Amino acid sequence: MRRVWLALPAFLGVAAITAAIAVPAYLVPQLRVVPLDLDITSVASTQGPDGSAGDRYPATIFDRCSIRQSKARTLQANLTQQRRSVVVDPSDRRQATVQSAQTVKIDRTRDAAGKETEPSVGDVGAERECSDGLLSATIDRVSLNRKTSVPNGTVSSLQLEAAPEGVDVKDVSVDLPDRKGFQYKFGFNVKKRDYLYFDSNTRQDLPAKYVGEKTIDGVQTYEFVSEVPETDLSSLPNAQGEAALGTMLTQPASWWGISGRGISPKSSITMHRYASAKRHVWVEPKTGTVINGREEQHQYFQSPDQSEDTPAPVRDFRLDALKGTFQWSDQTIANQAAKAKDYDSQLKLGNLWLPIILGVIGVLLLALWAVLFWRTRRSEGGRGDDGGYPDDPYDGPDPDQDATRRDLGPVDDAPTAYVGNRSANPWERPTEQIPRVEDPPRADGFEPLSRETTQFERPDGPDSPRR
């Protein structure tokens, strides 16, 4: 049992050092993946082009109710973009499927006459009115490689409308099989280089260029800028393979407000909805967490025919459908910064502090074992090779023996050396040292040898023959 307790510090020390080596090699890679409990909620509101939040109506939207009126109109508005991203099935240790529901709501509007309105949002499943406060809604689903955060193609779809009861969401969604860019989260260990970023409005991967660094809420971030080129949204079909609702609009020239030589007020003119954007994202490089975001959105109606055969008033016409800069709220930024700090702390714990702590504990335990082992060996070092002690009466000189030898006289001619009080051959001992013991008679009739004689004699005398 004593040996077990002595070996225990050595065992624990080796185990601690082994764990210190294994933690960065095994535990940290398990942490450096897209978490299956990922839950990101972002809220962004429109603000002025210069970043000011004092303007109550910093955005412009198309008045959908004007379709039934005599002339197209736009409204000044304040908009809020909300997005929540969570992990859904199919997800496992290799992939995480992110479902992100995004809405753009109208908080308040003001028309050309100065009339202000705060529209309400109708119930889910109810028929939408032109004055409804919900401007747009989509649900994006994408499966990501948990190690790289890159889409792996298992699930990649965009739901453009609500699915009625009994209707499969796949029937109201479009597949996006070639999707490759980041969107809700970048990969780990982000570098100062360009990456692909996916734009859901135009359904394409675009370069996100590194432009600099910035500290946000105590978190060092890299800023990336992605510019979305002008894209005809009517070319992006819905689930039925047709142009999505609101991406093509045909009205008389007078309704559009287009006039000029060769243009009749009643001439039908078809306009397509186009979109362009400039997106800024600030990413914490170690974890790939998006800390802040700003999007400069511009959607407008424009003639798809820009040839010389189209009258100039038609070619040059534009009507804003959505124009505004969406900036993440302070609360969203604070939440994302806290998540990035927490992720970073976990990585530092597994990659730095935990190995150091385990390594120090292991070294101390091995040092303790060495001290205990040395002390144990030292305490046993006073013992002889056979486990006896130096004061064993047979291991040291015997003063009685010396006195006996002096009484016997010189022993130089003795045939056998003495060891202590014992001779190597007991028959060579002096007779006076041999105790008298009466032996029982032998069965063969021989008399036992007398202990007092110093030489062999036959019972019948020295000249008797041997039997």
Automatic annotation (TrEMBL):
<feature type="region of interest" description="Disordered">
    <location>
        <begin position="380"/>
        <end position="467"/>
    </location>
</feature>
<keyword id="KW-1133">Transmembrane helix</keyword>
<feature type="compositionally biased region" description="Basic and acidic residues">
    <location>
        <begin position="454"/>
        <end position="467"/>
    </location>
</feature>
<protein>
    <recommendedName>
        <fullName>DUF3068 domain-containing protein</fullName>
    </recommendedName>
</protein>
<feature type="transmembrane region" description="Helical">
    <location>
        <begin position="352"/>
        <end position="374"/>
    </location>
</feature>
<dbReference type="Pfam" id="PF11271">
    <property type="entry name" value="PorA"/>
</dbReference>
<dbReference type="InterPro" id="IPR021424">
    <property type="entry name" value="PorA"/>
</dbReference>
<keyword id="KW-0472">Membrane</keyword>
<keyword id="KW-0812">Transmembrane</keyword>
<feature type="compositionally biased region" description="Basic and acidic residues">
    <location>
        <begin position="429"/>
        <end position="445"/>
    </location>
</feature>
<feature type="compositionally biased region" description="Acidic residues">
    <location>
        <begin position="388"/>
        <end position="401"/>
    </location>
</feature>
